[in-house]
C-alpha cells in the first residue's frame, strides 16, 4: 500500500514537472530563467535606488528570490493542480493529498536546480560559498513544511471559491514587498520588527542568508520556533484538507 502511494506520488510529480515546460520553446530553461530574470531586473533597479549597504548584495538578493519563488511556486501550483486535476478527482478514488504533495515536490525540484545554478555562478564569479551553505537544508525543510501546510488551506479554499486563485496571486505580489527580500531587516524600524517576524518567511530567508552568505548560525530558538510554527500550519492544513476532501468530487 505504501509503495503504491509513493509510486503514484512520484509519477504525478515527475509528469507534472515534464509537462510544465513541454509546450514552451525554451523548455526546462524556464526553471532557471524565472528567478534569474527577476534577479537581473531587481538588482539593476536597486543598485541605483537602494539607500542601504549589504555585504554581497547580489548574492543576498538572488538567494532571497530563490527561496521566495519556492514558496510562491508551491502554493500557486497547488491551486493550479486542484483545477487541472478536477476530472481526475471526480472519476478516480485516490488519496487527494497527493495533489498538494506533488505540487510542492515539483517546486522542490525547481528549488534544488536553482540552488545548483546559484552554486555554479558563485564558483564562476567568486561568490560566497562556505561550510554554512551545507546547512541550507534547514531553511529548505522549514519552507517545504510551511508551504505545504499553506497549500492545503488554499486547496480547500479554492474548491469552495474559485476566486481564491486570483486573490492569492494579488496577495503574493504584496507579500513579496512586505518580506525583506530586496532589502535587509535593518531598514525596518525596530518597533515594527516584531510584526514583520510574524511572517515565518522572514526568519526562513534570514536563516538561509546567515548560513550561506555569512557563515553564521542563527539562534537555535529562532530556528526551533519556525519549525514549530511550520509544523502547526502543516498539521492544521492537512487536517482540514482530509476532512473536506470527501466533498471535492461534488464541489469541483
TrEMBL record:
It is found in: Cell inner membrane. One of its GO terms (molecular function) is ABC-type transporter activity. InterPro entries: ABC2_TM, ABC2_TM_bact-type. The chain crosses the membrane at residues 21-48, 54-71, 98-125, 131-158, 170-188, 220-241. The keyword Cell membrane applies. Pfam families: ABC2_membrane (PF01061). It comes from the Archaea. Its main location: membrane. Keywords: Cell inner membrane, Cell membrane, Membrane, Transmembrane, Transmembrane helix, Transport. The keyword Transmembrane applies. GO terms for cellular component: plasma membrane. One of its GO terms (biological process) is lipopolysaccharide transport. It is a multi-pass membrane protein. Residues 26-244 form the ABC transmembrane type-2 domain. This is ABC transmembrane type-2 domain-containing protein. It comes from Candidatus Iainarchaeum sp.
